Amino acid sequence: MNDRQLVIKFQNGEKEAFDQLVKKHYEQTQNLFIGLAGNNMDANDLCQETFIRVYHSLKKFKSESKFSTWLYRIAINVFNSYHRKLKVRRVLSFEEVSEIAKVEDPNNSREVDPELWDAIKALPKKQKMIITLRVFQELPFKDISTILNISENSSKVNYHHAIKNLKKKVKE
Amino acid sequence: MTIENRLNELKRFNTTEGIPDSFLSDVKNEIISRNRKRQDLINSISAFMILFVVGWGLYLKNLNVNDYDMSKIIIDLSEEVDSGSIFEEEDFIFASIDYLIDEVDIIESGWELIDDLTLHDFFEKRAMDSFEERS
Questions:
Q1: Which of B10, B22, B37 to probe by mutation at the A interface, max A CB count within 10 Å?
Q2: pTM, to two decimals
Q3: What confidence tens digit (pLDDT) does each residue in B49-85 have?
Q4: Closest CA of chain A from B67, distance in Å
Q5: Residue A149 burial class via C-beta count within 10 angstroms: exposed 0-12, middle 13-18, buried 19 and up
Q6: Which CATH number fits domain A1-106: 2.40.30.30, 3.40.250.10, 1.10.1740.10, 3.30.420.40?
Q7: Angle between helices B105-134 and B89-103 (to 10 degrees)
Q8: d(CA A94, CA A102)
Q9: Helix (H) or strand (E) holding B68
């Protein structure tokens, strides 16, 4: 059963359709957040928050875009809220909150290439999102532009800036 | 190794496979918990609104009673002034007459004239009587 049919089922009152949507899109959402947040713990919380928002908004979804694009947009909004909260926490506690999470996370995939991870983390937020969506999610620029609500050209330019910045920060 | 290759390598290790058993139940529990909190909030706001309306009604009712009490006090006071007046009814009439007479010259002069005439007649009568007695 495809996403559209599942959405219609949910909108007709069959709540089980939501379970299937979650199971189908969990991995891509979790991976997106691992790329953006940089640790599994935060990624799991953000993923959970995204599906809660999906549950509350699914009745209003008109299927004008793909379900996955709509889901990514919600995920990006959730990440933006998280990013804002993280900034406030940093200001209030005068410490690197992400660093604490990094140490506490036992399943951290940073061990593979910590230098590159740190370089991605240090990118401006928009560039980090585009790198994550393009590299980890393998999305076309057209979808990225729809998810981030920017033009296709802008997403391409930002991607190239991100690669350029990464090259500057890590030794090739 | 180029940056693109390193990113692809990173991607291989950065993938989650399979949904944890607890994830879906955690999401559902959280949805239920938030719905309950939202319902509690709605109930609290409703209860507050009802209390506010009842409180406001009672306040308005008390306000009316107070107005009534105040008007009663004013009436009582006005009655008090009347009953406690320094003028008794009779005194008041005489005082009024005095006031009117004192204030009107014509009447005052009229009374004086009457008085004068009366005294004049009286003295004239007395003089006549004493003259008759002597004669």
A1: B10
A2: 0.66
A3: 999 999 998 888 777 655 555 555 555 555 555 555 5
A4: 53
A5: exposed
A6: 1.10.1740.10
A7: 90
A8: 17
A9: helix B21-83
